[in-house]
Structures are given as C-alpha cells and as structure tokens.
Amino acid sequence: xxxxxxxxxxxxxxxxxxxxxxxxxxxxxxxxxxxxxxxxxxxxxxxxxxxxxxxxxxxxxxxxxxxxxxxxxxxxxxxxxxxxxxxxxxxxxxxxxxxxxxxxxxxxxxxxxxxxxxxxxxxxxxxxxxxxxxxxxxxx
Length: 140
Hints:
The chain is of the alpha/beta class. The protein has a domain at 63-133: Nucleotidyltransferase, domain 5 (2-Layer Sandwich). Helix content is 36%, strand content 14%. It has helices spanning 20-41, 84-97, 113-126, and strands at 63-67, 73-75, 81-82, 102-107, 130-133. A 5-stranded mixed β-sheet has the order 3-2-1-4-5. Strand 4, helix 3 and strand 5 (130-133) form a beta-alpha-beta unit. Helix 2 runs parallel beside helix 3 (113-126). The radius of gyration is 34 Å and the shape is rod-shaped. The chain starts with 19 loop residues before the first helix and ends in a 7-residue tail after the last strand.
C-alpha cells in the first residue's frame, strides 16, 4: 500500500507529519500534571521559631542530669546520687530559681526506658519546658 496523492500517478512521498501520537502523549502528560500539582502544593501551616543571631544568644549552661545503666540519677556535675522524689524537688528548685532553665539528660545506652520516662515525667511535673538529650558523635 503506497501513500500518495489521490490525483493519479504522482508517486511522491507524503511530506506531512502524523501528529496524533504527539497529541496523545501531551494529553497524558497534561492529565498527570493536573493530578500531581495539588499534591505537591499541599502544605501544613506552621509557625516556626526565628533563630537569633549568634551575637544575641547568651550562652546558658544547662542543668545536667545523668542516668546510669542501673537507673541511678545524678543531678549536676557532682557525684551526689538522688532518687526520683529528691530529683523532682531539685528540679522544682531549679525552675523557681530560673524559669528558662534547660535540662540536658545524658542517659546510658543500656538504661531501661522506664528510668528515662520517669525523669521526663519529673521534669514535666516540675514545670520544665526545655529538655534535651546529650549524645555522642558517631566515630567512623
């Protein structure tokens, strides 16, 4: 079957481009983009805090709490071990002295989660709102 004009014996090849496959591909791409654009533009409204410059930040030494693998609590840099009730009283005193105090918890890797959870509950009950965990950098 030869393509050509209907005018008789003209055997010249047809020089027109068939655009039907091109239109089909473009319509499929249009539909795909119409479906994916609302998903890409969906965002969650958040009010993120603004970071202060390094000059404005006053370096505050955090209140350190160490939890040994046996579940013993050591508050501060000293070696005085405390129980949970005494820890909560000390944390309340620290909050009364400075309401913006930061608690830095350094728990042993092998400590039971229950001891850390009890320390967090004691901090919450004392009114501490800023709690962080001390970690070590992974050595390569």
